[in-house]
Amino acid sequence: WYENRYPDCGVDTPNHFYSYSFHRNPGWSGYFSKRDELHAYFEDCADAFGVRDRIQLNCSVQKMVFDASSSRWRVVYRDETGQIQELEAHAVVSAVGQLNRPAMPEIEGLASFEGKMWHSARWQEEDLAGKRVGVIGTGCSSVQLLPKTAERAGHTTVFQRTPHWVAPARDYYKPVEPGLIWALKHMPYYAEFHRARMILVFGDRSWPAVVSDPDWLDQSVSVNEANHVMRETLIGFIREGLGPKQNYAEACIPDFPVWGKRLIVDNGWYETLAREDVSLVPRGITRVTATGVVTDDGAHHDLDILILATGFKSNELLSPIEIEGLEGQSLADLWGDAANAYKGTVVPGFPNLFCLYGPNTNIVHGGSIIYQIECQIHYMMQCLALIASEGTAINVRGAVNSDYNREVQALSRQLAWGHPNVESWYKNQAGQVVNNSPFSLQQFWEETHDMDPTDFEFVEV
Ligand code: NAP
């Protein structure tokens, strides 16, 4: 919410669930609030819990080395004045996220484009009136920014490599009814009930539809019956939304199962593609020229502005921070593009280091990343208590981590996003799912609820 400021940027999980369980906000204006309101909520949390005087802003961590002789981390960072500083810490919690470093597409000639060009997470306010605007990408960011962009531009061209599934959400633009706000504020336990209901309705209710059914014979485009029913429903939604532009329908239907990639909440995507001043180009891009984009059919699309809604460098977790663990091993070398951690949180050989939103914790079937992170924090707090009580560093056992991750991979192969037709940022070069959780929300809560001290060994000083 700090990085993304594109038009109509907002959350696609209901706010009453996409917020901290320990800092409820009964006053959300909408069910799916927009970026400014979300950002203000997080700012408010910092004030409410009095943490501002413990935060050093504009610092960039360069390197962290675990010093086995003192069982402490040495953290080297550049401070806001540009000076290199160093501090020692018993434990380090990484909360750098997975989705904040823009991925620029590797397209020949991109740098030669002479019009204005920017990434969706580096939004530039520009007068689009009369301009020919190109948008590369059809993920969540593109879907959200397209309608408002198309309203302002002269003509908008969407370059689609592969289509995503997009589903309607009844309450997407609806303001919260005063009666609900009153109940959340005054009715005992109503806020808890409402949150629990959201967790089920927008999360685990979809879970049965993402798990592959071995008796479902044709697994080419769906993984079970409920998944197939959803596919048929969404195809109907595509055709309805495209209205006069039925010629786009085939190109808009993904060849992978629903929930193979995060199901995008609709904000008028197909209606926007159906506008006369919007074109969908469902083709690969061969190169970018000074004046536009060339697609693999040889066509040149003249553009004044090029928007790159091409996602984030999500497979390089914790990078570019250099992290050295026990015996000087590098975390980046250990992981390569196959990051893995026990409970998505702790890594063998890197004692007292905790990764929030770490490997295999992202959710696709529906859910709130804040919920996942709270589960991880619950787990981590038990680890910190052990560290404090024993007065030493703890290192998760290698065999425990290997067993856990074998299960993570075996489960992932059974889920919609492990389907062979899915190519996404969730997978690494080898096709392994490295970002997503293979667990339902309830299962992840159970996984992280009780830390088992025997999973760890103490680091000898
Ligand atoms: P994304 O899901 O990774 O989508 C990137 C898009 O760019 C894809 O359509 C991809 O095509 C396309 N692309 C990348 N390189 C390309 C190339 N060289 N040529 C043509 N197309 C190219 O990124 P995102 O939309 O920014 O979303 C990232 C994640 O952020 C989401 O999955 C979601 O978790 C989160 N998000 C959430 C919200 C929300 O809460 N409302 C909003 C935005 C984002 P392919 O599909 O073919 O790979």
Low-confidence stretches: none
Question: What ligands does this structure carry?
Answer: NADP nicotinamide-adenine-dinucleotide phosphate
Helix fraction?
25-40%
**Structural class per helix/strand content?**
alpha/beta
Placed side by side, the strands forming the largest sheet appear as 5-14-6-7-10
Termini separation (Å)? 42 Å
State the total count of DSSP E strands.
Answer: 18
Spatial extent as radius of gyration: 23 Å
Average pLDDT for all residues:
96
Name the overall outline. Answer: globular
Strand content: 15-25%
Order of helices and strands: HEEEEEEHEEHHHHEHEEEEEEHEHEHHE
Largest sheet: 5 strands, parallel
Our count of helices gives 11
Report on the architecture of this protein.
The model has no long low-confidence stretch (mean pLDDT 96). 37% of the residues are buried. Helix content is 28%, strand content 16%. By secondary structure, the protein is of the alpha/beta class. The two termini are 42 Å apart. The strands form 6 sheets. It has a 5-stranded parallel β-sheet, with helices on one face. Strands 3-2-1-15 form a 4-stranded mixed β-sheet, with no helix packed on it. The chain has a 3-stranded antiparallel β-sheet with strand order 11-12-13, with no helix packed on it. The longest helix is centred in the C-terminal third of the chain and has 22 residues, at 369-390. NADP nicotinamide-adenine-dinucleotide phosphate is lined by residues 10-12, 99, 105, 107, 120, 136-142, 144, 159, 161-162, 262, 285, 309-312, 425.
